[in-house]
# Entry
Amino acid sequence: MKKNLINMVRGTIMVAVVTLIAAGGCVGQENKGGGRLEGTWDAVVRIKDCATGNVLNTFASIASFNQGGTSIGSTSGIPQAARTPEHGVWRHLNGNLYEFKFKSFNFNPTGQPTGYAIIQHTVELNETADEYYSSGTARFYLLNGTQVGQGCSDAAGTRFDF
# Structure
């Protein structure tokens, strides 16, 4: 009986130690950038010619990166009647590097859906996690999934906060 009690205490201590180590690992990830993208961001987006890097258009955008890896955003670059809000996902790569991908649907002037876009960027936060720079690609598709175009863009973001 005494031996069973000692084994139970040892087991409980081992579980507690493993839990503390695991929790410490999670906290360490936060300090290394793991959850620092979460929140709402104002951004200036630049649409660029992929071959030359020349800026073709510039506009404001806003995005919220939610706990758990989802996101939603809107842009001033295309009227809301012509494009749905951006719904997407994001993940922490390492350090202050992240990646996001979102999808939005496009409509013609009569309101008929014409296709969708998938935008994917790599994001780097600054050390204080109140600004970022991102760059990546946009791929354009017909509703049947046929890719009909591609573009490049970058963005500079600032945390929307009190």
Summary: The chain has one domain: 39-159. Residues 41 and 111 are 29 Å apart (CA to CA). The longest strand covers residues 113-125. Strands lie at 39-48, 55-65, 70-75, 86-94, 97-107, 113-125, 131-142, 147-159.
